[in-house]
Structure formats: C-alpha cells, structure tokens
Amino acid sequence: MVSQSTKYDHLFQNVIPNSIGGIHIFGKNDTYVKPQDYDHILNLENRIWAELFQNLEFLLDQYASREYLLGLRTLPIPNNMFPEFEAISPLIENSTGWTLVPVAGFLDEELFFDLNQKRQFPVTDIIRQSPRFEEKYAGVNIQNDEGYTPEPDIFHDIQGHIPFLMNKKYADFMWEIGVLGDEILKNERGLSSKLVAHNLKRLQNYAWWTYEFGLVKNNKDSDSFRRVPNDIDYEIYGAGIISSFDEVTNVVHCAKGLTQRSKFLSYDIEEMALTCFDYSNIQDRYYVIESMESMYESFRTNQELFWFEG
Which of 84, 97, 267, 297 is buried deepest, with most CB atoms within 10 A? Predict the structure, then answer.
C-alpha cells in the first residue's frame, strides 16, 4: 500500500492514526479474484445477512437518498438471504456500464482504482461474524461484530454501494474518482513518491467524506418514494453510513438534537480533501452537500486540489 505518512502530513487536519493492521490486503500480483460459490452459502450466513438488512430496512426507507431507494428497488437484493452476484451484475452493466468483480477481500489502492477506472466494482462474498470470516482471521485480533469490521464485507459492498451504481450520474462520478486515483498512482507528472502518497490521501479523504459517509440536504422530493416521510434535514448517500445501524441512528439522533456526538458541516471540497478520518469509530462529522449535481460539478472543476506539487 502507498505510505500514509509523509512530510506533507502537516497540511492535514483531524489527523488520526488509521489502523488496518492485520487485514489481508490483495494487490495486482495476488490471486484476488474469487468467484462467489453461491450454492454453498451457509444458512447461518443467510441469517446474518437477514438480521443486518432487516435491522436497517425501515430506517433506510425513511432516511436514505432518492438514488439509493430507486436503485435498491430495481435490483435483486433480498432482505432475507445472500444476494447473488451473477444476478445483479448484468443489470448494473445494462444500466450504467459497471460490473461486479468478486474478490477475496481488501484491495490495495492501485488495484482498487484500476478496477474502478474500468467501471468494475470489487465485492466480497464474506460477511461479518460468519465462520468464514473467523477462519480467515484466526489468531488475528481484529474487530468483527455486527456494527463494524475494518474489512469491507458483502453487506457493505452490496447493500451499501451497489444500489447507487444503477444511477448513471452517480456511476459516472464513481468512475471519475477511479480515473483520478489511477492517474495519481501512475504519476505521469513525475512527482515524488511522497507527493503521490499525499495526493492519494487527499483523494481518499474526499471519497470517505462523500460516497462513504456523505449526507445531502433533504428537499422533501424523495418522500414520495418512502413509507414514512423523512423528518430530519438530511438524506443519507454514504455507503458507510447506510451499511451500519449504529451510524444511521447516530445521524438521526444528532439531526434531532438527541445527542451532540457528531457535527454537520457544509460541503467544502478543499477542507474535505485535507481532513483525515477514523476507520474504527462512529464519525465525529458529516459533510452535507446541497445536491448530488453540485457535488459532481465541484469534483470535476476542482481536480487540481488532488495534484499538490509541494
């Protein structure tokens, strides 16, 4: 992986030691493709999926963004058993040109962005708290509970990210981030390795505060797609929030003034690029965009922020 510590770290704020120690990380030279063996999914694994999904189902119906709700409705993502990659991938490809790539686990930056710039999204077949997860990390002290694991699992990948890839504008935004990440790593500008690492971290920060943990202002236009109207000022579009019951409830409780654990900040692309994040805790801040379109336009017109030259 590209080093996350460089002499340019003083430019970042909210610096937190991010740790993914112990996680198996796959690169281009590894056997990273791992086809889903759907016929051998355990009943226990289906139950874990069902519990995670059903625990969030009505909350997301009320608070997730329009793009998510519509995407979820058009895909065969069941609420009571594992989704089948081969049933989902052709629908996404037909809609936005993306396909699913079944992978063995966490991918390094070079491989992840290379896949994304090809409109390929990596998804893993393993799920938190399952025997397969425990076997994979036998002897390793890694958090593995219902609310969180530092390795993205099938629930985060499929239930959190994939519905958005049915939306053409959003799918193009994800592709553009992948293209930029790939360009930073290929380094045709000839920057030093420390600048490459620094610029990559800027892009990772931005991705974290947008498609992983972003909120959009609630303009009430999505309520016609909900069972119950959204009663807070925000809609959720970040997949990291969507796939976590604790994170969703934190957003809702903070928005209703029931807790002050996290703050809501206005979208600021430069601030977001220079603001680090924590893998291991509920987020202490959420950046709020005015609209999805304004975010897309901002990213396209401010890419020089990710080409810092010292």
Answer: 267
10 Å CB burial of residue 195 (0-12, 13-18, 19+) is buried
Tens of pLDDT, residues 167-186: 999 999 999 999 999 999 99
H or E element at residue 240: helix 239-242
Which CATH code fits 23-306?
Answer: 1.10.800.10
Q: Helix crossing, 43-63 with 245-255: angle to 10°? A: 20
Distance CA 4, CA 20 (A): 12
| Pairwise CA distance, residues 60 & 238, whole Å | 12
Give dist(CA 127, CA 243) in Å, integer. 12
- 278 phi/psi in degrees, rounded to 5: -120, 125
Domain residue spans of the chain: 23-306
Q: Which residues contact residue 30 at a Cβ distance below 8 angstroms, ignoring those fewer than 6 apart?
A: 104
Task: Please choose, from the candidates 110, 100, 117, the residue with its C-alpha nearest in 3D space to the C-alpha of residue 35.
Answer: 100
Strands 285-289, 263-266: pairing is: parallel
Predicted pLDDT at 1: 45
- State yes or no: pLDDT of 149 exceeds 80: no
